[in-house]
Amino acid sequence: MQTHQPAAVLPCTLGVGRTRAVARRELSCEVNAHALHVLATPFPIAGSRVSRSVSVNDERDFRGSRPAAEESAAGSRDDAGSARAEVLLVRSVSLSGIFFLMVLYTMYFAASLILPITLALLLNLLLSPVCRFMVSLRIPRTLSALIVMLSVAATMAAGVYALAAPAAEWMETLPTELRRLEYKLAWVKEPIKKVQETKEQVDRITNVNDDDAAPPSAQSGGSVSLVDAVLTETSSMLYGVSVMLILLFFLLASGDAFLKKMVQVTPTLADKKRVVETARDIQRHVSVYLGTITLINIGVGLVVAAAMYLLGLPNPLLWGAMLTVLNYIPYLGPLICIAVVAFVSLLTFHTPGQILLPPLVILAVNILEGQFITPILAGRRLSLSPVAVFLSLVVLGWIWGAIGVLIAVPMLVTIRLVCEHIEPLSPVATFLQRH
Question: In this structure, how many other beta carbons lie within 10 angstroms of the beta carbon of residue 381?
């Protein structure tokens, strides 16, 4: 009997047949690939040992070539990293140089604003222990700051008043003393006169266009008189002193307000402790150094004033005060004082021994102070490199004039102490120290 399959079973049977055909086709492809791999494998000559040795050697070569490739890639990465680091270093040095020049020119052109602020900060470091001591005696901080500020102002006014009369007296007698000096140095005038005459003859011979030269122009009406210049400088100085004293009062009255704000914005407790310790250490060292140097300079000035009085030099208090101020300038300040005192001694005395004795006394006192007293009291740890001192004197003298020269070394010591306590700036402190 003939049977018929249902129509619904036919698609399933066709699907199964198609699946088997696909499986056979894939199997034949795998067989062909395996056969090609066998044909590509070297033919074993003396059994399978040679084939195994060949395959092992190939594997060793592959394993040996992989570290070499990795080392080459690592070397290329190191070269690229070093080149990138050199580029970043050059860029950092360039930006630092540009920033340094910008700071210098800002300090130069804004001297009337920045100089009083700098003086107020230095005086704040010097006088903060005094203000804290007064607060410990139950005196309000604002009143303590006001007393200290008024004391500074009174000291400055008393110093100017005490030195104004001797300076004016010496300036009045200067023309008479210069005429006496001219008589004393008459034996020097003849060679100088001959040199001047020779120079004039050479100028007449070499200058062939004297007749065609234009006559000197009259004085322009826009020139500034001496009185106007003095008034301008005086008003500028009074403005600077006023700004310095007012800012000093606010700095002393604020106390540790800025330090407390820095502690508040510091994230971790360890960082807060480090900020407080660093700030206290810097303030303590700077105030001790500035106070010690100030007392040493005052003592040196008093000794020199007493010595000049005993030697009979006129206005001894003036020369002692001059050395007190100039002694803040290493090397150059004492030399200026010695030259001025030698000039005054030449005007005053007659014998060589009397003339040489006052400058020699100042030289001896300065050597004693610089080699023994200051290292013992201030310590050698804060000694500075002579190159750094000279550069600071030149730069700040160019920027701020005589005041810049006076505060150059205190500023340099302050910068060094700050850099010692900030790790990224420690190379700067190493450069500034003496040894």
Answer: 11
Domain boundaries, the chain: 111-188+234-255, 256-382
pLDDT in tens, 256-300: 887 788 888 888 888 888 888 888 887 888 888 888 888 999 999
Full 3-state SS string of the chain: CCCCCCCCCHHHHHHHHHHHHHHHHHHHHHHHHHHHHHHHCCCCCCCHHHHHHHHHHHHHHHHHHHHHHHHHHHHHHHHHHHHHHHHHHHHHHHHHHHHHHHHHHHHHHCHHHHHHHHHHHHHHHHHHHHHHHHHHCCCCHHHHHHHHHHHHHHHHHHHHHHHHHHHHHHHHHHHHHHHHHHHHCHHHHHHHHHHHHHHHHHHHHHCCCCCCCCCCCCCCCCCCCHHHHHHHHHHHHHHHHHHHHHHHHHHHHHCCHHHHHHHHHCCCHHHHHHHHHHHHHHHHHHHHHHHHHHHHHHHHHHHHHHHHHHHCCCCHHHHHHHHHHHCCCCCHHHHHHHHHHHHHHHHHCCCHHHHHHHHHHHHHHHHHHHHHHHHHHHCHHHCECHHHHHHHHHHHHHHHHHHHHHCHHHHHHHHHHHHHHCHHHHHHHHHHECC
Q: Phi and psi of 256, rounded to 5°?
A: -95, 25
Band of pLDDT at residue 245, cut at 50, 70 and 90: very high
End-to-end Cα separation, the chain, in angstroms: 121
pTM of the model: 0.65
* Opening angle at CA 96, ends 93 and 99, nearest 5: 150
Residues 91-112: tens digit of each pLDDT? 777 887 888 888 888 888 888 8
Dump pLDDT digits (tens) for 223-241.
445 556 666 677 888 888 8
Query: Residue 117 corresponds to which amino acid?
Result: I
Share of the chain above pLDDT 70, in %: 70
